Amino acid sequence: MASVRFNHVFKKFGDFTALNNLDITVEDKEFLVLVGPSGCGKTTALRCLAGLEDVTEGDIFIGENRVNDTPPKDRDIAMVFQSYALYPHMTVFDNMAFGLKLRGVKKEEINRRVNEAAGILGLEQLLKRRPRELSGGQRQRVAVGRAIVREPKVFLFDEPLSNLDAKLRVQTRAQISKLHQSLQTTFIYVTHDQTEAMTMASRIAVMNKGVLQQLDTPQALYDRPDNLFVAGFIGSPAMNFFDAKIRKADKEAFVEMNGFSMKIPANKAEKYMAYDGKPVIFGIRPEDIHNPEFLPSNINAAEVEAKVDIIELMGNEINLNLVSGTHNYVARVDPRTRFTIGEKVKLVFNMDNMHIFDPSLDSENPVA
Ligand code: ATP
């Protein structure tokens, strides 16, 4: 069993709380991604798990074992860093073999493991080279290889793709996903990049300011963000937010924004009636705003008028920066319509995918 559990973990550096009651269970063989902005505590969480930092309060379990007092070398985990941390004077083979030699693993066993890892990672032809003779992507694979040969219970990755260019990042992302499938081991992966998190994770833990915001599958985080922070962090371009008010009229409910009013679909109205007259934040993703000619069928549509401010042609879609009254927002629309800057257009919000957030609750708490 290589499940991992952070049980109400606090980590303080002096007065500063880097991890605030972190409570996460990572299932055996799961690919969990910790994501959040710079400084939110992701690396600190990994370092506590690896035993490179002591926790201030709470427990960490690997499988059934509480490891708070277990030295790093006995935790049976391997970590891949952003910097790769390869030894420059050693060959690829020796870089991968080094940790095993230190542990007194027999030579034949070292050869077997290094060759097997080199095979998995396509490094067979590079085993005699030194790190300076490798590309960034190859170095990164050596760093992963060094972790694989340890045959650990848990793999930790700390932003391993940050030093790669955009194209290589996409390729390596896919390789790491495949590696997870073939090794069938628990992976915990830290990144600040929500796309990386969405594409690789079986579940994602979103963190902000040392506090876990939501732990869920990528799709659930996208469809049902618990709070404003998660809603704004997951999705690109980010969700649009509007200051709004809820107005109840008989059995119907409307969301009213400075300058326009939209009917809330019947199946959602009841949930938000309690907010009648109160300020809320209305959220809509750019991809849920459509040009009327290319509307998905069977949606609860609400029309808005807007002025086109900026046009970003993306090939398979267009990102429009729009202005309606005092609101600025982004729509991701079908590229078959031609838009011009300054043009007044009619667009449609898909109200089935709208979100309402309660601004009286801060971002660390759930919303309505
Ligand atoms: P990044 O994506 O930038 O690496 P992160 O989410 O991994 O960020 P951490 O490295 O975990 O963030 O740091 C969390 C907070 O704890 C930061 O504010 C950081 O300055 C602080 N911190 C980390 N290590 C120490 C330390 N040894 N002493 C004091 N403060 C620290």
Automatic annotation (TrEMBL):
Recorded hits in SUPFAM superfamilies, A to Z, give: MOP-like, P-loop containing nucleoside triphosphate hydrolases
| Listed Pfam families | ABC_tran (PF00005), OB_MalK (PF17912)
Gene3D superfamilies, per the entry? 2.40.50.100, Nucleic acid-binding proteins (2.40.50.140), P-loop containing nucleotide triphosphate hydrolases (3.40.50.300)
**What InterPro entries does this protein's entry cite?**
AAA+_ATPase, ABC_transporter-like_ATP-bd, ABC_transporter-like_CS, ABC_transpr_MalK-like, ABC_transpr_MalK/UgpC-like, Mo/tungstate-bd_C_term_dom, NA-bd_OB-fold, OB_MalK-like
Q: Which residues cross the membrane?
A: none
On whether Membrane is a keyword of this UniProt record, the answer is: no
Q: Which GO terms describe its cellular component?
A: ATP-binding cassette (ABC) transporter complex, substrate-binding subunit-containing
Record bears the keyword Nucleotide-binding = yes
The UniProt keywords, alphabetically, are: ATP-binding, Nucleotide-binding, Transport
Please list the GO terms describing molecular function: ABC-type transporter activity; ATP binding; ATP hydrolysis activity
Classification via SMART domains: AAA (SM00382)
Domain ABC transporter as annotated: residue spans? 4-234
Q: Name one GO biological process term.
A: carbohydrate transport
- What is the protein's given name? Glycerol-3-phosphate ABC transporter ATP-binding protein
